Amino acid sequence: MDIIVCMKWTPDTSEADLTVDKEGKDIRKDDLDFDMNDWDRFAIEEAVQLKEKVGGKVTAVAVAPEDAEGMLRECLARGADEAYQLWDDAFEGSDGYAVAAILAKFIKDRPHDLVLTGTLADDDCGGQIGGMVAAMLDIPGSTLVSKIQISDGKLTCHRELEGGLYESIEMDLPAVLSVATGLNEPRFVSVRAVRKVAALEIPTLELGDLGLEASAVGSDGSRIRIELMELPPEGEGAEIITGKAEEAAAKLAEILKEKGGIGS
Amino acid sequence: MKEIFVLAEHRKQQLRDTTWEALAAGRKLAEDLGAELTCLLLGSNVDAMADALAKEAPRVLVVEDPRLEPFHPDACMQTLKAILADRGPFMLVMGNSNALLDLAPGLSVTLDAALATDCFKFEVRDGKPLAWRQMYSYKVNTLVSFKDAERIVATLRGGAFAFTPSGAAVATVEKVASPLGGTTFRRRFVGYVEAEKGDVDVASADIIVSVGRGIGDEPDMEMFESLAEAMGGVLACSRPIVDKNLLPKYHQVGTSGVEVKPKVYLALGISGAFQHVGGIKGSPLLVAVNKDPRAPIFRVAQYGIVADLNQVVPALTDKIKQLKG
After folding, report:
1. Fewer Cβ neighbours under 10 Å: the N or C end of chain A?
2. pTM here?
3. pLDDT digits (tens, 9 = 90+) for B141-177
4. Which residues in chain B have their CB less than 8 angstroms from residue A249's CB?
5. What is the ipTM of this complex?
6. Domains of chain B
7. Which residue on chain A is closest to B144 by alpha carbon?
8. How buried is A163 (Cβ within 10 angstroms: 0-12 exposed, 13-18 middle, 19+ buried)?
9. Residues A96 and A176 in one domain
């Protein structure tokens, strides 16, 4: 089975102190650490586990600049057979639609029984890529997939609905599945595993290699445009309890007691 | 924009809250853009739901087909493509729910429309709609335009658009013949599956101590257990804690986890992404402790402490034990 996994290289913003840059259309990223998008880590793991069960080949791919090569090499260390980096200066400024178009073109040109990716990315919080790629390839797809089973060429999966409810669905292959975090336990990558793949080539495919037009990618090929970015005003919302940890904890305990936050 | 369409979401013959929120957003957009508003209801045996919508929307358009019930994204996509084929310019809004996450992105490609997901506010400039959404761990507000798109699809942040029933409209319900013909789909609904139930029922707890990513990679879970016990509450969590196998799934609060309705909710190291906060219903006393002063949780909490959990939690546990005597 040929499995293609779409990966994203994202800044870790969960605990970082963020500031908006001078143009006001993005945040400053020079001080941020970049890493594999959390959701995609589960996608590459699932691909490798499926390969271990039913055999086949895993290809990791990312629309990402040079710096992201380490992430693709990590995919190889995690068990992918090959990795491709799709990058061209023309890709700069692509929105979800343009990124999906680049990925769809890459996938269309090679064998694919299953395409995996993460449902969301923590940078744009869009949740668009899987569904768009499926529509562009005219194959079925689903998101928030929390369990995947493949037997006799038949795909069954569970996807998360709200309030602890899941939906069980069947799909014909090929299909695009955007996974939920937690559907597996991503393996630990040893130094040895990384060393083993150190010499493997990770080809970079540019605009022309993919047979794409410049007008279909980057900001020209995008359907939405960021006009403004701003941090919500500080001090909006919660009343902040100040003081040293013990003092703050003591004040909070009083508030909890008063408001019924201490039960028997 | 000439027309605003609102897609109704329903499950097991019940309209979901997202439908009313989408209608609220649609009403405002129609007013600001001077556009016509139509509610789209796709399903099977939907008369009761159509009647409810007809009281609130100026126009209701219904397509009935057994293949549209239960929700099937591909059947919806084909139906919407057919009934919207000759329309435009238009904007179609719907909830950013887990179910509709399987529809909106593919639909936007099929309709050749621009897409913005998880929008929490709209504004109109020069007769064109713009959408506010969040990026970067939901910490940064972003205004996006749709360039010159004549077709727009937007999904809506749960809880961001408050619906006020007017009950004034008496729309005629227009039924359109299903365009699906003999179409078969490469995706098939098998059934609903209920999540595994555990020994702790966070859904019915009055006091909840909930932990998130901010507790670190090797947290002292007993420290949090002790606090929950001292407070007479239960321990819950956000998604990353379950992903790391620190607590079983039935402890997870959120849109993909358990919905809770406590009196008190103490959020420890929880950033406050909407997928988590969306699972907290009612209006509990919400208190957050987080070392990031910009964590979105502080915008929905009533009280907050910006500090290291390892210092605050043991101190709080001791203090509560003292107060209990």
Report:
1. C
2. 0.93
3. 999 999 999 999 999 999 899 999 987 777 889 999 9
4. 305, 312-313, 315-316, 318-319
5. 0.94
6. 3-176 (3.40.50.620), 202-324 (3.40.50.1220)
7. A226
8. middle
9. yes
